[in-house]
Fold this sequence. Notes:
It is built from 13 helices and twelve strands. By secondary structure, it is an alpha+beta fold. The strands form three sheets. Strands 4, 5, 8, 9, 10 and 11 form a six-stranded antiparallel β-sheet that branches. The protein has a four-stranded antiparallel β-sheet with strand order 3-2-6-7, sandwiched between helices. Residues 1-11, 96-107 and 109-116 have low confidence and may be disordered.
Amino acid sequence: MATSVxxxxxxxxxxxxxxxxxxRLDGPTLATAACTCAAFCSISREERLWENVCSSMWPSxxxxxxxSLIASIGGFRKFYADCFPLIVNKEVSEYHWNKYxxxxxxxxEAEYYGxxxxxxxxxxxxxxxxxxxxxxxxAICSKVLWGIPNANGFNGWFHNCPFRIDILTTYAARDDDxxxxxxxxxxxxxxxxxxxxxxxxxxxxxKELRDGLRLSWIVVNKKMKQAANLASWSxxxxxxxxxxxxxxxxxxGSVLPAKDILPCQVVECILSMKFRVVxxxxxxxxxxxxxxxxSMQLEDMEGAHVNGRNSLLILKEALSCHRSKNYSEVLESxxxxxxxxxxxxxxxxxxxxxxxxxxxxxxxxAFITFCYCIL
Length: 375
C-alpha cells in the first residue's frame, strides 16, 4: 500500500515538473517536445500551455473577448496551429501573362460578382481581425476589429467598391476607444535622427524599420470556426511617401487563391503600415515616429483593387488554403507573385506599344492612299 501511494505521489510530482518545463517553451519547441514521449504528449494537450504561447506571440489574445472567441472556434491549441504557419501559394508560377485570363465582355454582372448563393452565406460581421505589431521583439500595437467597417447591408456601396480595412481610422471613430497613439522612439531602439536630409542620404532609419518591424494580421471567421494569418511577418518592401519624406510606408502581405472568383486566379493581400517622423534630434527631443496608417486591401494581377463582394469570398477561401512554417518559403511565394506581375505589366506595355505602332502605320498608309487618289 505504501509503495502504491509513493508511486502516485511520484507520478504527480513528475507531471507537475513536466508541466513547469513545458510552460516555459515557445510554440514550435512545445510542439516538438510533444512528439518526444507519451508524458509530454499528454501534458502538451493542456489548453493553458497553448494560451500562454498565444498570449506571448499575439498580445491581442489576452483580451477576454478574444479568449472567448478562440474558445468558441476550437481552443488555443487549434488557434496556434492555424495561425502560426503563414499562407503559401505555390500556384503563382502557373499564371504567367500568356495564361492570364481576360475578363470576358459577355460576362453578366452576376457572373462577374460571383455565385450569389455562396455569397449570401458570408456575412461581414462574421470576420474578426486580430492585429499585432512588434518592433525588435517588443509589442508596440495590438488591435482587434470585430466585423468589417461600413459593410452593413447587402446592397450597400461596400460590395461594389474597392475593399479596404483601415484599423486606425475605425478605432479613431469609436467613442469607447481609450487607447493612445502608437509611437516609436529612441527608447524603443530607434536610431537618433538629427535631420531628415541626412536620413535621406544614409537611410539608417528606413533600414532599422525594415529589419525590426514584424506584423501579424489574423482573420477569424466565427461561423466557419477557422482562422488564418494573412501577414508575411517580415516586410515585403516599402518606400518613403512622397513628397514630405517624413512618412515611411512598410508593406506586408500574402498571395491568396481566387480560383473561380476572379479570372486572374490569385490576388495579393496588401497590408500597409505608415509611420510619420514627428520629432528629430535637431528639435531638442528624441527621435519619435507615429503610426498613422494600418490597412488591408486586395489587388489582382493587374493592380486593380478587388471589390468588397469578391474580397469576402477570397477571405473565406484563404482560411482553408495551404500554409507553411518556413517563413523563407512564404517570402519566396510573395516575391514570385511580384515577378510574375511585373512580367505581365511589361508584356501588356509591349502589346500596347505594338498596337500603337500598328495604328500609326495604318494612319500613314491611309493618308498616302488618300493623297494618291486625289492626285
